[in-house]
Each structure stands twice: as structure tokens, then as C-alpha cells.
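Quick illustration for those who missed Monday's session on complexes.
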Amino acid sequence: MAGKRTFTMIKPDAVGAGNTGAIIKMIEEAGFRIIAMKKTHLSKERAGQFYEVHKERPFYNDLTSYMSSGAIIPMILEKDNAVEDFRKLIGATNPKEAAEGTIRALFAESIEANAIHGSDSDENAQIEGSFFFSATEQF
Ligand code: GDP
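Prediction with guanosine-5'-diphosphate bound:
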């Protein structure tokens, strides 16, 4: 299914603010099909594993504290050209730079608490989806 799937999670700021439903509506209206979804929570250690690629960055400790501060909604999504189209739908990492109408422009609080994650490659979509879901949980 190369090129057809991406991984996302709605982050603690957006879940806590009650924006889960509005964000999922935007995702479905943009043509993505939800393959797997749950509401869960990351420990600081698991958040550290998920963001291991950033462990040398100055914001790593803050990021893992934030990502373990509340519930998250991880999802696997399907659509043609999923990774690239989803990155367009969510907008730039920094909401001040995110294009108008994107999920981060509408819902993100800051460069850190930026409402939603989107995989940056097909390979990472596969790795990140498997971090949260077994093969039998994907429909
Ligand atoms: P993404 O692919 O757009 O999510 O961005 P990155 O992979 O570069 O960063 C991962 C996550 O780390 C972002 O989504 C933010 O939550 C957080 N982050 C990125 N840059 C910064 C920063 O400069 N400061 C802080 N505090 N957090 C950041």
C-alpha cells in the first residue's frame, strides 16, 4: 500500500480543548479514510521513543513532557498520495507560518502544542502506525 497510507495523532492540546471532532471532520472531508483509531496516553518514556529522532534537539525534553501531558488520538489514514496531501492539510509546524484554513492554523496553540502530527514519509508512516496499532487493528 506504498503511498496510500499515513499516520497522524491529535495532540494533547487539541484533545484537551475539545477539538477532536472538528479535526476528524476536516480529515474525512479532505478524503481520508480512517483505517485505525483510538484514544490513548503516552508515558514520557514512550513519547521519548516516538520522538527519538529529535533527542539531540533543545526542545526534546519539553516536547516529551507535553506529549505525555494528556490524551492523544492516534490514527492510520488512507488516501492516494496520503503523506503529502496530509502534510498540506495540517500546515507548517509553526502555526504562525501555517497556511490559512489548515488544521494547525485553525487549532494549534504554539510551535510545540501544534494540535496534530503527520508522518513525513511513507517509511515513517509505516513505522509510526506500527508504534500504536497491530496489523489486526487496521481495517
Ligand atoms: P512536524 O513534522 O511538523 O511535526 O515537525 P518536526 O518533526 O520538526 O517536530 C516534531 C514536533 O516537535 C513538532 O510537531 C512540535 O510539536 C515540536 N517542535 C518542533 N519544533 C519545535 C521548537 O522549535 N520548539 C518546541 N518547543 N517544539 C518544537
